[in-house]
From TrEMBL:
Domain Metallo-beta-lactamase, residue spans: 570-749
Membrane in keyword set: yes
Protein species of origin: Microbacterium lemovicicum
Keywords: Cell membrane, Membrane, Transmembrane, Transmembrane helix
Subcellular location: Cell membrane
Lineage, broadest ranks: Bacteria, Bacillati, Actinomycetota, Actinomycetes, Micrococcales
SUPFAM superfamilies the UniProt entry points to: Metallo-hydrolase/oxidoreductase (SSF56281)
Name of the protein: ComE operon protein 3
Membrane topology term: Multi-pass membrane protein
Length: 808
């Protein structure tokens, strides 16, 4: 078939537009890479910045030289397409080098204050007091704690006072938060507790762990305080409506997720609807669009319409709290919506690249933020992929359906690979769930916003809240329905291998959908190769996983194992076996990898379940064990959610008991003994430092100590308690190998093997180099699940044996 002559230029023009839209991408990518490098290695910052600035000046000189040498009066040469392309290329090089240099310079300028704060005498768990201004929302951190971002103003250590101005992360027990909602963005609070340096690359310089209730020095004031009052009024108005829609409504309208319970939160994540439970780019885009439409109806010119949209967006950001994540979402939405509304999506892509670069210059530590990456990728996917996908899908379905499906599909294909880094599963029904929830989301947002702003009129607010509850309840019901469907979460490869495999599969699917008929011959080989590769990866992984979790699994694990560390990501799940009786110490964050591990080990029932504490990374998979457990022993629960979990386990037939130092029992031929926490002690609140520490020995089990997530301070208290029966053969290192350890304890234990359950490429830098150095100094052989996968330990003829699934 012959292609019409007039079609070739159209195709060529389309390709040229795409290339023009993408030519600014190196600006964002280079700036991102440099920001990531210099925030992780700040010592390299000055050299990197100097080199990049010098390179930018050289490129600028080349551009000036080309302009100076152009033939005077020869406009054909001056205006030739080739000459223009060369100049544009040099300009892009200058901009790329300059923005990257500026990002590195931002790190260099901020580093002295950050270094000074990190060098404060805070080691050893010393009690300190930190005066901070709250800059982020208070959010759940694990099952029993809360956390928020803040800007530190002063650190007091004893009689010493140090003025600082650095970002910090504050972690506190749920009971220590003021019940009046005064700890909102803009509040000034005093935090008493302990401080440790944050991990490299973190935006926060210090991690502040509160030892008791916060002391509010001043609540949010001015416009920020008024916005907080409006949000509080909406939460109160929704409180009397039926759940779960009532809990979801404030999140859809103003990003307040305090009323979203744990079950609904899990359902929203499992159905790929979690982006609706907080303020995202979609909320911001909706606000801009409404303002733009209202301005158009009034007959305002385009410039005034854009100004109106941005002004309303600024007010919306203030209402939902101007925390960094909201500001980023607003910036991305503003860029995307302005580009779409003025009909220049190609220009919008270029502006997105420049916006990303500018944001990274202002805050280089965002380079390590997965949330920022998802926000950027989602915006770019809307601009680049939604329209081609709609066109491609339109060949097989009605155009309105294709248009509706293209947006969630573009987001799923683009963001899915990054989400694998959080949880290695693929939500099978995510696109369909979003398609069904999409019509309700803007209704809940708009009506909910109206309810929020009508706080001075309680009757009007109640009526609007009830009306907004309807779409909110629909979204909540959609989430719960899809989360309960069989096969909702398909297990996937973890780490960067999973990212690459899913990206490859998505690329192949996108090519199949978007490819034009005239391109069929050219793309056939590419699609075939990509599809075959992706299919091989997925089928191989699935088949291998099925085999390992089925009859072949037992053949790959040493038959004599006594202790097995499950590879469950960033979390603890350790199985101990004696004379066919089994104990499970913690469950990891997710039931899926836990189930795979138990199947490989051939375990159908747990005789003893030890829940050291209730953080998600230790108890997230516990609910799936209901009906399969005989005895559950646990540390102190922190809240109602912890108590509900225990009730569910008890309802499945388990005997449930809270334990403390001195509790003991039998596991097959082995004895188990609890060494921590101390009975009746209030020195440590529920959570990490009140976690259950258990000693297991005998009956074929090497003498072992499992340290839960104890900090260095709690470890020293454990050592002073006099309950340790040293030496040990095996120690489960505390808190995934975090830097908060007591070297003296590990020297006292005298263990031969140190086990570290830890997730690959986790955000915390676990295990920390200083902890590995402690273990090396005590001559312990280290086995870690991030590198070694499943780990098995047993004793043969008095000699300790260690088997690693990977890495020898």
């Amino acid at each position: 078939m012959t292609t019409p002559a007039h079609a070739v230029p159209a195709v060529a023009r389309g390709r040229r537009r795409t290339l023009r839209a993408l030519r600014t991408a190196p600006v964002a990518l280079t700036t991102w890479a440099v920001a990531g490098w210099t925030t992780i290695e700040p010592a390299a910052g000055p050299g990197v910045a100097l080199t990049l600035w010098a390179s930018a000046l050289v490129a600028l000189g080349v551009l000036a030289l080309r302009i100076a040498r152009r033939p005077r009066g020869d406009r054909d040469v001056i205006d030739s397409a080739g000459e223009r392309r060369r100049r544009i290329a040099v300009v892009l090089v200058v901009v790329t080098l300059s923005t990257a240099a500026a990002a590195a310079s931002s790190v260099v300028l901020a580093q002295p204050a950050r270094d000074a704060a990190a060098a404060l005498p805070i080691s050893g768990g010393r009690a300190v007091s930190v005066l901070v201004t709250v800059t982020g929302k208070v959010e759940r951190w694990g099952s029993d704690r809360l956390a928020f971002d803040a800007q530190a103003q002063r650190v007091a250590i004893g009689a010493q006072r140090f003025a600082v101005d650095v970002p910090v992360a504050v972690i506190l027990a749920a009971d220590d938060l003021d019940p009046g909602g005064l700890t909102d963005v803009g509040a000034v609070v005093e935090v008493g507790g302990t401080v440790r340096p944050a991990d490299p690359g973190d935006r926060a310089v210090l991690d502040v762990t509160a030892a008791g209730p916060l002391e509010v020095r001043s609540p949010p004031e001015g416009a920020v305080g008024a916005a907080a009052d409006l949000r509080t009024s909406l939460v109160a108005a929704a409180d009397g409506l039926p759940p779960p829609g009532a809990g979801l409504l404030p999140g859809l309208a103003v990003g307040d997720t305090s009323a979203v319970d744990a079950d609904l939160d899990v359902a929203m994540k499992a159905s790929s609807l979690s982006h609706l439970t907080a303020v995202s780019g979609a909320n911001c885009a909706l606000v801009v669009g409404l303002a733009f439409a209202a301005a158009s109806a009034l007959g305002l010119r385009r410039g005034l319409r854009v100004a109106a949209g941005l002004s309303v967006l600024a007010g919306f950001v203030l209402l939902v709290t101007p925390e960094p994540s909201v500001v980023r979402a607003a910036a991305m939405a503003a860029v995307a919506m302005i580009a779409v509304l003025v009909g220049r999506t190609g220009a919008g892509t270029a502006v997105v690249s420049l916006a990303v670069a500018i944001i990274l210059v202002l805050d280089p530590w965002l380079a390590g933020s997965l949330g920022f990456a998802l926000s950027t990728v989602a915006t770019a996917s809307l601009l680049l992929f939604a329209r081609p996908l709609a066109t491609g899908l339109g060949r097989w379905m009605p155009r309105p359906v294709a248009l509706a499906l293209s947006v969630p599909l573009a987001a799923q294909l683009a963001c899915g690979p990054l989400l694998v880094l959080i949880t290695p599963v693929v939500p099978l029904y995510g696109v369909v769930a979003n398609l069904l929830a999409a019509p309700a989301a803007p209704l809940a947002t708009v009506i909910g916003l109206a309810a929020c702003l009508s706080a001075p009129l309680p009757l009007v607010q109640s009526g609007l809240a009830a009306l907004a509850w309807l779409p909110a309840a629909w979204i909540a019901g959609t989430a719960q329905t899809f989360a309960a469907l069989p096969g909702n979460a398909v297990p996937w490869l973890g780490g960067w291998a999973g990212v690459a495999a899913l990206a490859l599969l998505g690329l192949a699917l996108g090519i199949v959908i978007v490819g034009r008929r005239t391109d069929a011959a050219r793309w056939h080989r590419i699609v075939s190769a990509l599809s075959a590769t992706s299919l091989a990866v997925v089928v191989g992984t699935t088949a291998g996983g099925a085999a390992l979790s089925g009859p072949v699994g037992g053949l790959t694990v040493p038959a004599a194992w006594a202790i097995a560390v499950c590879d469950v990501g960033q979390g603890d799940a350790v199985v101990v076996r004696s004379h066919e009786a089994t104990a499970l110490i913690d469950t990891g964050p997710d039931p899926t990898p836990l189930a795979v591990c138990l199947d490989r080990l051939g375990i159908a029932r747990i005789d003893l379940l030890v829940l050291t504490h209730f953080d998600l990374d230790h108890a997230g998979g516990a609910a799936s064990l209901a009906g399969r457990v005989g005895l559950v022993v646990h540390g102190p629960p922190a809240d109602a959610a912890d108590s509900r979990l225990l009730t569910d386990l008890r309802g499945g037939g388990a005997v449930v008991s809270e334990v403390h130092a001195g509790s003991r029992g039998v596991l097959g031929g082995a004895m188990w003994r609890v060494l921590w926490p101390r009975a009746g002690s209030k020195a440590f609140p529920p959570g990490n430092d009140a976690g259950v520490v258990v000693d297991i020995r005998g009956g074929g089990v090497p003498t072992s100590l499992f340290l839960a997530d104890l900090s260095g301070l709690a470890q020293r208290a454990l050592a002073r308690a006099g309950t340790l029966d040293t030496p040990y053969e095996v120690v489960k290192v505390a808190h995934h190998g975090s830097g908060d350890q007591d070297p003296a304890l590990y020297r006292t234990l005298g263990a031969a093997v140190a086990l570290i359950p830890v997730g690959l490429d986790n955000d915390y830098g676990h295990p920390r180099a200083e902890t590995l150095a402690i273990l090396s100094d005590t001559r312990m052989a280290v086995a870690r699940s991030d590198r070694n996968g499943m780990i098995c330990v047993w004793s043969a003829d008095g000699v300790l044996q260690v088997w690693r699934e990977r890495g020898g």
